[in-house]
Amino acid sequence: MKKNFFVSTPIYYVNGDPHVGSAYTTIAADVINRYNKSMGIETHFVTGLDEHGQKVEQAAEQHGLTPQAWTDKMTPNFKNMWAALNIKYDDFIRTTEERHKKAVKKILEIVHAKGDIYKGEYEGKYCISCETFFPENQLNGSNKCPDCGKELTVLKEESYFFKMSKYADALLKHIDEHPDFILPHSRRNEVISFIKQGLQDLSISRNTFTWGIPIEFAPGHITYVWFDALTNYITSAGFENDDKKFDKFWNDARVVHLIGKDIIRFHAIIWPCMLLSAGIKLPDSIVAHGWWTSEGEKMSKSKGNVVDPCNEIKKYGVDAFRYYLLREANFGTDGDYSTKGIVGRLNSDLANDLGNLLNRTLGMYKKYFNGVVVASSTSEEIDDVIKAMFDETVKDVEKYMYLFEFSRALETIWKFISRLNKYIDETMPWALAKDETKKSRLAAVMNILCEGLYKIAFLIAPYMPESAQKISNQLGIDKDITSLKFDDIKEWNIFKEGHQLGEASPIFPRIEIEKEEVKKELKIENPISIDDFDKVQIKVVEILDVDKVKGADKLLKFKVFDGEFERQIISGLAKFYPNYKALVGEKVLAVANLKFAKLKGELSQGMLLTTEDKNGVSLIKIDKTVEAGAIVS
Ligand SMILES: [Zn+2]
Prior knowledge:
20% strand
């Protein structure tokens, strides 16, 4: 029997907003969970919210709410986003729930009874934003938070400490003996060298605020948020609440935590040390993924280039968004989110490769057999090649999914899709259809294609559940494809004589990138403040006279009136105003506080403003009723 499977995302911070990073982790967890279920494994997928801490207490106060009412109010932000992204979790945990408080109380009690908690005094530099103390050796003399860059405050308090240092060797041994404990493997060394630098004991209590889980043996103290938050994983698995469930989804399961790479130390060091002390099984794999940039740049609100999952699914559909995130970057490395990238994937992988295979197959079946399956027992070698390739594909996908290499798993499935497209070209159903004696062979070919597509729909269902269902429906099978197990689809005789195929219609419409770019959000380059703009003085000036500059064909010498003074301005406009004398009397715009300059020996006391388009350069003419000297602002 296959081992059960437990997968978690981090619990997200309740004050924040779900963004592309948390969407990425949560989609990945959903995909791996759906995949394991489809392979006949019993699974448990938990996501949720981290609801304690000083900042939550402060935010609630600012909004005139109790912390509990505040977190209740924020929770739908996350639940709605996960629903929009088609995330099917088994458990949504909130750290303010009773079951969680019970679990935290219990683990503290065990660790305390073991002698691993002692009372001390903590004085350190603390980031209120990150709710973390930073030891001097991480600060290099700076007083700024190494994580968020904010100013640190010195905090001194009585605190209880967890003897984390005691478990350094046991943890190193565990990492050494379990090569898949930290994934991707490339992250192992980072963790190992951090442990080898020497672990400090961890302050696990706070007494400067009250919004947290009280510590029974330490009156007046509440549990440090990370100690509280990390425990959510065992709470969800049933620890201290449901022993049977805990055995099933923790002790007898492959336990996997998906996280962003920024919190790997909490998960690969603090959490396992807590579990080692409590005598609880360690997770099997901690999988850290990379960051997303946007159009090649770091995402930031000021740049206006933050990818909003809601916008993206409106534009491309939820399945294309899920597919793109998991296909574009390898899970452990950083990826770049771009319009060109997602449109390219949609058009080539989804519309062309997969969409065409489906359309061609259904179109031909309709044309040759009126969309009704004809059984056939003929078989040629090339059919066995396809069947063997399917078996290989399933094995490779299993291998990659075990290591959370989503992109390579999809690449493998797409190789099979390409192979089926090639199979059409090789078997040439249109030629078979012309020969009455080849009807049976034609049916055999068409059946391989239908069955192949159904298998593809099954394989992509964890990634793109809606599209997979549409493919299944078009093949005439309305059963919920996400409820199927591999055993239901592995054979090649699913489509029986007389089965009515459905109607073909495009599942992935192509997107034109030009149109797409017009819809792109307004972005500005090098934004300036209003103060910057105010430094430039632009005035309306009246042109009193214009002449050529001797020895310089391109330049015109303007005499203008700025409302107060006459000025001479030299401008390279000769080419665009051959009939320059006609400009006399016009009112135009000039920068009035530009440093004076000399051009070809002539003094220039300002700059005339112009526009440039495909017709050339033009002065900006102002209505003649506006007085010379009027300021542009
Ligand atoms: Zn910070």
